[in-house]
Design a protein that fits this description.
The structure is a homodimer. In chain A, 38% of the residues lie in helices and 18% in strands. Chain A is an alpha/beta fold. Chain A has 2 domains: 70 residues, Winged helix-like DNA-binding domain superfamily/Winged helix DNA-binding domain (Arc Repressor Mutant, subunit A), CATH 1.10.10.10; 112 residues, NAD(P)-binding Rossmann-like Domain (Rossmann fold). In chain A, the strands form 2 sheets. Chain A has a 7-stranded mixed sheet with strand order 6-7-5-4-8-9-10. In chain A, a hairpin with a 3-residue loop joins strand 2 and strand 3. Chains A and B meet through helix 1, helix 5, helix 6, strand 9 and helix 8 of A and helix 1, helix 5, helix 6, strand 9 and helix 8 of B. Chain A binds a DNA duplex through helix 1, helix 3 and strand 2.
Chain lengths: 207, 207
DNA sequence: CCATGTGAAGGTATTCACAGCC
DNA sequence: GGCTGTGAATACCTTCACATGG
């Protein structure tokens, strides 16, 4: 199965597995079977086995998966085996919350720089990161930052992305509720929070 | 095409279309064709037409779609045609940011109540909403609140969801990085922000 | 002539069932 | 006996090409 195109859906699930593995590593067990992991993360066991099988033979029949080793493998696949230096643009309400959010560290993602237009915010320290003016974006490359989070108002989203692309960033998580264009060497994931909530009523039984 | 199961992916795209339509309604035009909308929202035109066709004939051949009318139809499909009263549980960094976030209003979602354990937060007004103690969750039903956003620490996520389900909530947007269980009459969408960022490096060319 | 709506084709992902291994 | 890994079957979604209607 090793030579095969990896489904996008599989890639989407890998971080779920990784999170589950890291949590169960804290519980002292050394191995976990696909069925236990399935209950833990809410993905069926056959789906889990199939997903892993795309990358190689990680498990031992009759035993299960070695938790530590599997976690390491998934990190390698997701390219999270090195610490990823990340920049945040837009230190408003959402941006500040993201700076304070400890969850990124779980995946080795480290927000090491923050930028904002507002001169009154520049120079302040928020959650241990000093806010810089937008001009600082220009030398992200020299600072080995290749990932960015965009949490600016919609009107300046495209300009922000342009500046980031110019600065050599190659992955962007966009919290802005609009489509932004970029050369295809740059991967953009857009996460519109309100939109997620918006499809909830559809699934709710009457009322 | 009217009697047909609606693909989940179609439902996921409806809010995108809705956003695009509302934005182009502000520009004075009355009609829009699938091709223009396609460029606007970043979904191919045939996909848009197919998606709409599941629900009926919304367009006029040779002309396109009547923007206002189509927006109204999509709102009705998503059950966003009435204002949805929403509760927020957990007024930490993320919770506060969500309270301040104007995007929910776009879809007729209105955060009208906020709850937190911390007695020092209780009684404070944040973005126009007064923070209440957790005991207030019990009478969400009387207050006609059927939607909730959970932004509490992971450890208390399940307990929070249990309380919300008990109080008659039927849709939950969960920002907690863990799976939570609920009776299937309650729809839960989990949004783990860090996880989205975590799959970005996979798609980045070397480095 | 232009743009919609949709059967049919093609592609992708999920699910099953079981052979193979510990 | 227990659990993995996977070909084959199924279900699902996307894409195409065009008949149909304004």
């Amino acid at each position: 199965m090793r030579y095969h195109k990896i489904p996008d859906e599989t890639v989407r699930r890998l971080p779920i597995y990784l999170r589950g593995l890291m949590l169960s590593a804290d519980q002292g067990r050394e191995h976990i079977c696909s069925k236990s992991l399935a209950e833990y993360v809410g993905v069926p066991s056959w789906q889990i086995r199939k997903d892993f099988s795309y990358f190689g033979d990680f498990g031992t029949p009759g035993v299960g998966y070695h938790i530590e080793r599997l976690a390491r493998e998934i990190k390698k696949i997701l390219r999270l085996d090195v610490i990823r230096r990340t920049a945040l643009v837009g230190v408003g309400d959402l941006g500040s919350a993201l700076l304070a959010y400890p969850g990124f560290r779980t995946y080795g993602l480290d927000i090491v720089a923050a930028f904002d237009v507002n001169p009154r915010k520049v120079g302040k320290r928020i959650s241990g990161v000093e806010v810089e003016g937008l001009e600082g974006i220009a030398d992200l490359k020299q600072r080995k930052i290749s990932l960015a989070i965009v949490a600016v108002p919609r009107e300046v989203a495209q300009a922000t992305v342009d500046a980031l692309v110019e600065a050599g960033v190659r992955g962007i998580l966009n919290f802005t509720p609009c489509r932004v264009a970029a050369p295809k060497r740059v991967k953009i994931i857009t996460l519109d929070i309100a939109m997620e909530l918006a499809r909830l009523p559809y699934y709710m039984p009457a009322g």
